[in-house]
Amino acid sequence: MGSRKEKGKYVNSIPTNMGMSVKSITGMLRDTVRGNPKRNPAQPIPFKRASFQAQPTADRPQVTWFGHSAFLLELEGRRLLFDPMFAQSPSPVSFFGGKRYSGSLPLEPEEFPALDAIILSHDHYDHLHKGSILKLKGKTKRFIVPLGVGSRLRGWGIDPAQITEHDWWQELQLFQLKLACTPARHFSGRGLFDRNSTLWCSWVIAGERHKVFFSGDSGYGPHFKQIGDKYGPFDLTLMECGQYDERWAAIHMMPEQTVQAHMDVQGRLLIPVHWGAFTLAFHDWFDPIERAVKAAKERGVVIAAPHIGETTVAGSSSYNVEPWWRG
Asked: Across the chain, where does the E strand assignment appear?
């Protein structure tokens, strides 16, 4: 069963209240006034300079993370770029979200190798950036997006023949890879009047030997177990972890839920994403990774915490979990 609409708007598969009570709004105003010096790094955070071979790996899955939810997946000889938001600010209003923690990027969009596809999870500004798409459009001939998001790309001059739009539980073939557009618990929109006019999703990427899962933005919910039952186990998961708050836990997981969701989809290696680039919540900027690493160790989950720009190979004998964010 795919997604559904109510009054012309996409809705989540379980009730998801995104309204704010007077108490929540008052608390947010108080937190804003009070401030938190640890919401942002004291200085630009370190990153690795990314580089890629002429041909992608045909062996184990490799992921290079660019901060927030942008990453390049190399799987069985194919290169897929997810949520390539490479702007210096995550918002059309520059003072909201501040500047990118790393200052510079591990690789400029113009320097990317040829891509087999660019894949998007939803249309929020911190995942879909016009300038980044326009700089990358010559690197690929395929854009794979959830329902409705194609209109954003077409409006920016992307060839409609290069775009395919997909509903929840719809599968598609990309060379030898099978992709599935799977549910997430979130919302969409880029303005005051277009909320939930496009779909949001997670993604399953299944090769002939290996499988990877990307959660997109999502609150915790039963869809993770449903995805695991249908498509798991996964060699690697990239799970949302960051920009959370108990006041909006329905649409962004807490770090402990990130680890549980990884277990629900039957993942082997967990890489937390949606952190390490911008400030969109009130928690300490490094809180997501520290809480996720702690929860993973307590539950026997294998986790990696790579530098931005560092490539992680699934199936390795060990992974980077050193607290580089502590300087």
From this structure: 4-6, 9-11, 62-65, 71-75, 78-82, 117-119, 143-146, 163-166, 170-174, 177-182, 202-206, 211-214, 234-240, 267-273, 302-303, 311-313
